[in-house]
Amino acid sequence: MDKKITxxxxxxxxxxxxxxxxxxxxxxxxxxxxxxxxxxLFELKSKxxxxxxxxxxxxxxxxxxxxxxKLSVYGTVNDLAVVGARPVFxxxxxIIEEGLSLNDFERVIVSIKEAKNNAEVEIITGDTKVVExxxxxxLFITTSGLGxxxxxxxxxxxxxxxIIVNGAIGEHETSIILARGDFKFKANVLxxxxxxxxxxxxxxxxxxxxxxxxxxxRGGVGVVLNExxxxxxFGIEIQEDSIPLKDEVKAISELLGYDPLYLxxxxxxxxxxxxxxxxxxLGILKSSGFxxxxxxxxxxxxxxxxxxxxxxxxxxxxxxxxxxxxxxRIC
Amino acid sequence: MDKKITxxxxxxxxxxxxxxxxxxxxxxxxxxxxxxxxxxLFELKSKxxxxxxxxxxxxxxxxxxxxxxKLSVYGTVNDLAVVGARPVFxxxxxIIEEGLSLNDFERVIVSIKEAKNNAEVEIITGDTKVVExxxxxxLFITTSGLGxxxxxxxxxxxxxxxIIVNGAIGEHETSIILARGDFKFKANVLxxxxxxxxxxxxxxxxxxxxxxxxxxxRGGVGVVLNExxxxxxFGIEIQEDSIPLKDEVKAISELLGYDPLYLxxxxxxxxxxxxxxxxxxLGILKSSGFxxxxxxxxxxxxxxxxxxxxxxxxxxxxxxxxxxxxxxRIC
Lengths: 331, 331
What we know:
The structure is a homodimer.
Chain A (H helix, E strand, L loop, with lengths): L13 H15 L2 H4 L5 E4 L4 E9 L5 E2 L2 E2 H14 L3 E13 L4 H18 L2 E10 L7 E11 L12 E4 L5 H10 L16 H10 L3 E6 L4 H10 L5 E5 L7 H10 L12 E5 L4 H10 L6 E7 L6 E4 L5 E3 L13
Parallel strand pairs in A: 5-6, 10-13
Antiparallel strand pairs in A: 2-7, 3-4, 5-7, 8-11, 8-12, 9-11, 10-12, 13-14
């Protein structure tokens, strides 16, 4: 019979210790985590550091192509990567709903292990809380990350800079919509959830004129473009027919009336780079496995403070900064 | 009319930005947090760092003497302090239940501001998620902390070392039991929630022979004592009549059948120190406002691997390492 998480697992007493040793340390052990001290102590050679945090509240916990475990590692790794920092250490804090299957919890931990090995980071400190049934959505994970800055400073954005995305968009959110089964159709769409540090480390080694990077998670590419232009004396113009989109994502978006530009991604980022380095950057992205990486537009002197889309019909549409989301919560 | 948190506040779009600017940045702003970047970037002079994380899930959010805001700052500050690290930077990640009053959320943020000013730390990065009504217990806060180690290394625990607690125990958990109103009595008990870095920084400056420090949170003093002895070739003997206890906590514990040694604290820590430095340490604690600080026992060569209590009746009781908790979840 599948065992369940109980409130005792969150008591701080023996049952908590057993859960940590039998499941968490079993898969994630390293000398610092093994200490189970109040804080992990360590030395870092670099002085310039990056620090970030994110809570992962995705439902369902497992979805095509990924799960909350990988998401909670890669999401935080990517928040370090896009500021040009090599991810080094993570903390993980679990809030678990009473009644969660211990097998499911262990599946998540195993997935975290694969992701942290792949991203070459260590989990060095953590916390585990259990709340009553109905007080949490199965499992929430909050991951904080510590990285070492490897890019001196991003340049200032200028007119003519190119805007690149590293692959087809909207697949993460589409995979979750499909996994929920609220809509009665099936399609083969996998989450794009992935660590971006590998490719970003190559980009920052070769390109000296990167102006901006941000992973297009909640709110998608559309919100990131608005964050870039807001209050600035430049605008953004992107070409509709350049936006990389898988057929299935396009079809589902049309069917449900969603704009894929606002769908969440977990392995896609927007990069702004001097036009002199556009082809070099695209070459690095493609040779790193991001075959659909493409320039989607550029920084423009017109449409100040706005992001606009040049449509296939030669029209121009302003890309809103939406108030909320177009979809049920997915994170 | 009191406004409420909606799912739009967690969308990552305009409503999220408004919530961050109108409430979070309004009270917590500093140059790093203002950037609203994916990660905060900074330089730290020291190489030896401490990193910790904790999720705060207390119900109710507000209770006599404190609230989830202060708790989420001091709890993490204390986890850094007890390893001898000066708390410097915090991250805050909010998981908010749809429908939470915006006024209550702002009250929590104002409380966080007071606590971070008092503890002399800065909140430099964060995240905000909103989940549907019934998927969270009003508000969960996960705080990670980064500190600079200021104590070279704790010594090894030896027979004869003294065990000190910095004040009367059990007041935090008792205050929450009372605030919940599940039991039909009233008493004036305030949470002991407080930052410990101030006094610990004095202790580590003056005492060279500290062997161990741990804040006695979930599971209380009883669990900490068990964590100290487990698997070790020494034991712990504490004297029942030396345990500092407020009359109200004693009365409520007797009435409800709880052992105060296992009640959670948020401003109490256990310190093990060489007997040569016992009186110096007690002097520092008392002169720092912890008037009830006291030696409760010592490291003993008998009872190996066990913590035992010498009772007022000259008996000896083994202090269990309990499996779960004696009480409803409070954190």
